Amino acid sequence: MNPSAISTLGDLRRAVDAGRVPHRSVHQEVRENLIAKLRRNEPLFPGIVGYDETVIPQVINALLSQHNFILLGLRGQAKTRLLRALVTLLDDHIPVMQGCEINDDPLDPICAACRARITVEGDATPIGWLPRDSRYVEKLATPDVTIADMVGDIDPIKAARAGLQLSNELTMHYGLLPRANRGIFAINELPDLAGKIQVGLFNILQEGDVQIKGYPVRLPLDVMMAFTANPEDYTARGKIITPLKDRIGSEIRTHYPAGRGDAMAITAQEAWLARNGSGPRTDVPNFVAEVVEEIAFQARQDRRIDKRSGVSQRLPISAMENVVSNAERRALVSGEEMAVPRVTDVYAALPSITGKFEMEYEGELKGAEVVGRELVRAAVATIADGYLSHLELRQVIEWFDLGGSLQLADTLSAKDVIAHAQEVQGLIELAHAAGVPKQAPAPLLASGVDFVLEGLYALKKISRSDERGYHGGEAPVRRPTREPGLEDEPRMPAGGGKKKYYN
User: Looking at domain 3-253, which of 3.30.2010.30, 2.60.40.3250, 3.40.50.300, 3.40.50.2300 is its CATH number?
Assistant: First the structure.
């Protein structure tokens, strides 16, 4: 179909009669385009990872059923992205009345002004073509949204200028919902919408029309509705009123990535890692990427973190960007052309981690940074166990137990790290056994050495001080900090002292 060849109402009628232009509702359009994509085995929702066996089949069922639907899930579960991907199921262009605020159908106009215009101009009435991206309207629900914002209101200025009665349909000022006519209207965080505004959505969901300001004007809109909500919002900030829930065709639950592989794919897709420009080129080792991802998995099961709020997938995305930046900073200072993140860089990324979760009472007592450090160590222990458990670690551990000590600041260049690591019998070989290639460049080998050391520390095989000094034996357990004035001996200041150990 060539839209430029159809410019008048008469042209459109002939094209529809000849079958060159489909004439159907939005729900029918989405359903038929979805069926065509399924038959061609095309990807339906590009960029959505981890939902192929769970959420996406349910969304497909809702669309095939021509349902309005809601996505229920915690923050950072790609709900909004999934809604925006629905645009790909719309036609490339649809015919509309030129200049109409509500994208009226030239063959079945609902707007009084459009009907009057067609009566005067007939088949010569000019039409326009609306692209698919302009047919998606999204609104973030907030308590201050009014029914006028959503549905519309009477415009007295328009009535005065045209000399019309206020009850005349031509005096209407249309809200977001009528302006989404013949498209998709999405509302994010539905429970935050005031109850009386939710009531205003009843008609559009059930009867397909809206009424403005109590006047006897009904607009039978053709619109597909989709919503998102946090399931905890039913009893927290607000709630979805029962009659509205009853009118929503399908309720679909989203979730966080089930496995580390899907989570890493999402982070690799979303994080800004390919930093083209004047900086050094970056290469993220797989074990570092796994550690960053495991932090979110540890946080989601930690009793000190509020599970009702959730731990967004934005945590590993932001953390990975910070980890790469710390590696960049070290490479720039050291004059290296390649920036390879190390596990110790993950600790430097704590500012991008601590703000991504809300804590329970026990977590609040410890503090976000302490909890964050413990989550990183737990993540390193989990990943290191998978890489090192089958390797012979005794030689390296005994070197430390016999009094060996290794001081490796996270700012050391790759060559310096390797030079220090060569003092420890078997450490370089252990890094290669953990997956670093034999001919790997120095920054990658240094990252492997750092991973082995941090892994041994996290698994409590060796100890480490705050100054990145690795020593033999498991780190001693710190005494719990008491309130000022109650201690028997001077309290160690936070971050101070010559030695401080983390378990």
Answer: 3.40.50.300
